[in-house]
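Before going further, learn to read the protein records used in this course. The integers have meaning only within a learned vocabulary of local backbone shapes. To see the layout at work, look at the sequence and tokens printed below.
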Amino acid sequence: MKRFTRILSVTACALTVGAGLALAGGANVKASQIHQQRRIGQGVSSGELTRAETRRLGKNAAALHRSVVRDRIDGGVFTARERVKAQHRLNHQSRAIYRQKHDAQSRN
């Protein structure tokens, strides 16, 4: 009986925390997009990104933003599946920014 109560309480806590994270997840996507735009801007100002790289990263970021906006408009709710998809695309974009900023090309 004691074991069942522990399992039940742990499950309830996990569901509560998961629901809270799901509600806050939309803010994380927006914050990540803003952070990535700042990283691109910093790469431009430091000369780490060429014009072509900046244009390509900007187009990809804009496409990601449009898809997130479209997902939010479709049902009025940003579902967990849409959030996971957006986070996956943000991670991919973040790796692309890193690779472009750290390659051998520079704007001189």
